[in-house]
Amino acid sequence: MSTDKTLIRGAKVLGGDQQDVLIENGTVAAVGTGLDPEGATVVEAAGQVLLPGLVDLHTHLREPGREDSETVLTGTRAAAVGGFTAVHAMANTFPVADTAGVVEQVWRLGKESGYCDVQPVGAVTVGLEGKQLAELGAMADSAAGVRVFSDDGKCVDDAVIMRRALEYVKAFDGVVAQHAQEPRLTEGAQMNEGPVSGELGLRGWPAVAEESIIARDVLLAAHVGSRVHICHLSTAGSVEIVRWAKSKGWNVTAEVTPHHLLLTDELVRSYDPVYKVNPPLRTEADVRALREALADGTIDCVATDHAPHPSEDKDCEWAVAAMGMVGLETALSVVQHTMVDTGLLDWAAVADRMSFRPALIGRLSGHGRPVSTGEPANLTLVDPDYRGAVDPAGFASRSRNTPYAGLELPGRVTATFLRGKATVLDGKLV
Amino acid sequence: MKRHLISAADLTRDDAILILDTAEEMARVADRPIKKLPTLRGRTVVNLFFEDSTRTRISFEAAAKRLSADVINFSAKGSSVSKGESLKDTALTLEAMGADAVVIRHHASGAPHRLANSGWIGGSVVNAGDGTHEHPTQALLDAFTMRRHLAGAADGGPVHHRGPGDGTGRDLEGRRVTIVGDVLHSRVARSNVHLLGTLGAHVTLVAPPTLLPIGIENWPCEVSYDLDAVLAKSDAVMMLRVQRERMNAAFFPTEREYSRRYGLDAARMAALPEHAIVMHPGPMNRGMEIAAEVADSVRSTIVEQVSNGVSVRMAVMYLLLGGAAPPAELPAAATARTEEKNS
Ligand SMILES: [Zn+2]
């Protein structure tokens, strides 16, 4: 455990000039050069980049109900390793997080873990069934203070339910995060619908199933004057719709996952279910459009959609395999690889897309703050010069379902601070 | 040849011709009084069927037995597999039993690929049909049948229904093959497009647009929505089975409309060139995609395809397991008889 006082020496703050950052009593006490190390644990950070603690809008922690794949404790440890200081825990647990009781339970487990703040997401509808609104107000008023509501894993496909949810959450400045997937167009869908699915004989998940819902929802949000957030946007067409909605001044935000910034449906030719994810991996053209949209701000943020699954749910034939990939521990490396090393984003913009904006969308206070005196010391230190192959055996997550095993990726989180307390130091969990 | 047969696309032209030529040798064995060869004696072939298909299973079983292999039939129905055992655990069991080859039929596309590439088993994997992906031995037996009819005459041309010929050494260069029906859900169509292209044939797929996959314009074949427009220039017409239930998912309005637009009846058959053959992988829906009088006509190779299936599957197992000996070195019938006595 760290002492109360830590001096991070010589880090490039948000990728800018080298500075010392002094942390005291959970807050940033000073930022400058030649700060006095007296009484402080010194973290030598020459050549490294200091970012505000990363914030994930989309994490599946699986507890309660699927503790065989992840728990709040193992998931928050994985988050800390990945440089996150706050994660939004998705509602599709067993039981579903559709009551104040369940969201408070998850919130409390997060407090107890101490590795990363856990902000529960509340279900929009009871049991994610899409039929009846869950008690959104009770979840908002609970100790968990829920502001993001989502039936993620399922789409709120009924237009009336979606309209009402969008309107209702205005009362407490909430947002509905939509998993955009028209259900009838994606029955039994196994992968992106395109030339590859046709060849492989796997049922297609067409881009239009995502785009048609996004188009409807931005129109609904505009009509009722609400804000809507689009989960894991995955197609070039979706980018165009969000860009158009933003040009109208509508209150629309969107996220993209690291895997959709890097991987394409060509990988499905292996029939290895490690590449099975929802929404599915798309095409090269989609990847290009997503990167450009994240760079120009059309897509607001990166969210991991960290989806742990036990090995038996992936060690099988494609059709019966579970959908999803773990992502917390590789997210920043993938973003560096796809966005920073390609010149599309600088580190200040990474701070924006992975901390400031997701915290703003989730209405988190205390996260996504600038690295300056008096701010909460939620910080992430990255060594951008590191190169290493991804080794799932070393994951802090309980699950190993990563598509990057053996892939050499740049960058490594060397330290993470949650309100001044180191959760990761020298690249290892504290 | 590769160690496994998963996709018809894995076969080079030389591989394909070697298999077809070997199958001709195997067919000659079938004409002998003793139909067995000792080639795979002591080798174990497992028929792992996750999907009911008696005709395909029997064909593989007959092929393996004629090569003297020990055959284990492992049907998912009523076994531990139907009780939720995973493909992986089943594979590990087969490996422990010393399977030299696993013939797998599975309702999930890619399951044979998974079995062959996951390191669960060491033997050869033969795809006997996976989901809506591929059925490479069906394509081989179709190509074998086409070659006998369309390139089986002494001059390399068609035999004009005067019995099947022998096209040994030849490919299907320039032959025009029309495949009609539910291409979207057809593993037979996918394998045939790959293999027939490799063998030099020109393939045209005919279907209502709803039953063609997205991206078909990238396939190495032509596509038509109009059956009548292509019949006159077809050397072979292959009718695919169309499940009646597809109309419930709005792939086509009614059986009658499907049959009228895409079924092969006597009038359409009359529009074919004189030498053309009519094929069907079975099982047929008589009256739906093919009229009974067409299925039973002199042009129909449907029954022949079944017997050719055994020869082709013998050739595949022989080449995968028995080594790559050229077919000329196959043991003589006399040897087979001796082995038969000893076994
Ligand atoms: Zn989702």
UniProtKB/TrEMBL annotation, chain A:
A Pfam family assignment: DHOase
Catalytic activity: (S)-dihydroorotate + H2O = N-carbamoyl-L-aspartate + H(+)
Catalytic residue positions: 305
Sample GO molecular function, one term: dihydroorotase activity
Gene Ontology cellular-component terms listed: cytoplasm
PROSITE patterns: DIHYDROOROTASE_2
Protein EC: 3.5.2.3
GO terms under biological process: 'de novo' UMP biosynthetic process; purine nucleobase catabolic process
Cofactor(s) needed: Zn(2+)
UniProt cofactor note: Binds 2 Zn(2+) ions per subunit.
Residue ranges of coiled coil: none
Pathway: Pyrimidine metabolism; UMP biosynthesis via de novo pathway; (S)-dihydroorotate from bicarbonate: step 3/3
Residue span(s) of domain Dihydroorotase catalytic: 47-235
Record: residues binding Zn(2+) 2: 152, 179, 232
This protein's UniProt keywords: Hydrolase, Metal-binding, Pyrimidine biosynthesis, Zinc
PANTHER family reported for this sequence: ALLANTOINASE
UniProt function note: Catalyzes the reversible cyclization of carbamoyl aspartate to dihydroorotate.
Protein name as annotated: Dihydroorotase
Species in which this protein is naturally found: Wenjunlia tyrosinilytica
Gene: pyrC
From TrEMBL, chain B:
Annotated ranges, domain Aspartate/ornithine carbamoyltransferase Asp/Orn-binding: 174-320
Entry's EC annotation: 2.1.3.2
Aspartate/ornithine carbamoyltransferase carbamoyl-P binding domain ranges (all copies): 3-147
A Pfam match: OTCace
GO cellular component: cytosol
Chain spans, region Disordered: 153-172
Protein residues bound to carbamoyl phosphate: 55-56, 105, 135, 138, 282-283
Organism domain of life: Bacteria
Oligomeric form and interacting partners: Heterododecamer (2C3:3R2) of six catalytic PyrB chains organized as two trimers (C3), and six regulatory PyrI chains organized as three dimers (R2).
PANTHER family: ASPARTATE CARBAMOYLTRANSFERASE (PTHR45753:SF6), ORNITHINE CARBAMOYLTRANSFERASE, MITOCHONDRIAL (PTHR45753)
Descriptive protein name: Aspartate carbamoyltransferase
Organism of this sequence: Wenjunlia tyrosinilytica
Gene: pyrB
